[in-house]
Design goal:
GO terms for molecular function: efflux transmembrane transporter activity. The chain is α+β, with helices and mostly antiparallel strands and about 400 residues long. Helix content is about 30%, strand content about 30%. α3 packs antiparallel against α4.
Length: about 400
């Protein structure tokens, strides 16, 4: 082996130390991003651990009277069996409105007056026509009496031959004409009297009276308004006031057509007024309107109060529960019945039964005493008040007193 070949072999066995720093630099470039990634993941984990859990909530509620007897429910409005827009029977200018909104009125009480000057002129003319017709009748009666006497005298003379037959025929013809004039005068007097009656009626129509006992719910016109003799829906052409009988109130509820078979006349019902939510009022089905609203596929059911409650007014919102059988009076008070919560909201552990209450976004464990189960709910003999939010299907391992939580969208 020559010296040059030996040096080549030794060079091949020598370690190249210039490559080591290059590899160390590559490792350092990957270690920094990896460390940053671990820090970010750690921060995300801490953030998730501290993030308030999302819970689904329900409210403690007071049971509605008759829930167990309810066949179906419907919404509607208070209406009255007697409700009318009062308008004059003739056109005219309004000179007085004698009532105000909210004022009770009796039947035949004066509500308003129209300008009656034209009507009085017409009546005075009608009176004059009657007087003239009466005078004409008196003259015709006198003429007829004289014609009868002349005819009788001429007939006697004709029997004696003192007057010719032709003269007798002329006198009889004149007598018949006089009697026809008398009949015409009588007819003219009857026509004049009828015209006077019409003028008097026209004058009475200038005074608008209440057709029934009721309360003025709306005032539709004031003095000076020129009114037409009728009112059309949506456009007031002649309405002066709207009159409502508050003693004949009932509920108009809409029931879908597929549910109509479950409704019958005389069926017991409970009425809940939005304005008086703390009370339930017994009633019964009065009528089912025999027509379907095509656009909504519903029928109107009228439900009457057994006794119209004080404070009920037309157009108030209402809900109706149609019952299978009448409800005893003692069950009408919802506040006398235990409050209810979903059965899944109650947890049982070594400390007893409890619910997790959500208040101001934080949890609180509250002990409860549970009564009977009703469907998916349980009654609370002792526990939080109505309207309190409680967690549904809670996970005690994730929940603790004072922990901040987020209420699920749409929950509670």
């Amino acid at each position: 082996m020559t010296d040059s070949q030996a040096q080549t072999a030794l060079s091949a066995l020598r370690i190249d130390r210039s490559a080591a720093p290059m590899r160390r630099r590559r490792k350092r470039r990957w270690l920094i991003p990896a460390a940053l990634l671990l820090v970010v993941l750690g921060l995300i984990g801490v953030s998730l651990a501290r993030r308030p859990p999302t819970v689904r909530v329900a409210e403690v509620r007071e049971p509605l009277p008759g829930e167990q007897q309810t066949e179906l429910s419907a919404s509607g409005y208070v209406d009255s069996r007697r409700r009318s827009v009062i308008a004059p029977l003739i056109a005219g200018r309004l000179v007085e409105v004698a009532v105000e909104e909210g004022e009770p009125v009796r039947r035949d009480q004066v509500i308003a007056r129209l300008d009656d000057r034209d009507a009085r002129v017409v009546l005075e003319r009608a009176n004059a026509e009657v007087q003239a017709a009466g005078a004409r009748l008196a003259a015709s009666e006198a003429q007829a009496l004289n014609a009868d006497r002349t005819t009788e005298r001429t007939r006697n003379l004709a029997r004696q031959g003192a007057v010719p037959r032709a003269q007798l025929l002329d006198v009889e013809t004149a007598g018949r004409a006089t009697r026809e004039s008398l009949n015409l005068a009588r007819a003219q007097l009857a026509v004049a009297r009828r015209a006077r009656e019409a003028a008097r009626l026209q004058l009475t129509h200038t005074v608008v009276r209440a057709p029934f006992d009721g309360t003025v719910s709306r005032k539709l016109a004031d003095e000076g308004a020129v009114l037409a003799p009728a009112a059309l829906s949506g456009t007031n052409l002649g309405g002066i006031v709207e009159l409502v009988d508050l003693h004949a109130l009932e509920i108009e509820a809409e029931v879908s057509e597929e549910q109509l078979t479950r409704i019958r006349t005389g069926q017991p019902a409970l009425i809940f007024l939005d304005a008086l939510p703390e009370r339930a009022f017994p009633g019964q089905v009065a009528t089912v309107r025999p027509a379907i609203d095509r656009s909504k596929a519903t029928a109107t059911v009228r439900v009457r109060f057994q006794a119209v409650p004080q404070g009920a007014l037309p157009d108030m919102g209402a809900k109706v529960s149609f019952l299978r059988q009448p409800l005893p009076p003692e069950e009408l008070n919802a506040r006398a019945q235990p409050k209810r919560v979903p059965a899944s909201a109650v947890v049982r552990d070594a400390q007893g039964s409890a619910v997790w209450v959500v208040k101001d976004g934080r949890l609180a464990r509250q002990p409860v005493r549970v009564g009977e189960r009703v469907g998916d709910e349980v009654s609370l003999v002792q526990g939080p008040g109505a309207g309190t939010q409680v967690v549904v299907a809670p996970e005690p391992r994730r929940l603790r007193d004072g922990r901040r939580v987020k209420v699920e969208a749409g929950g509670g």
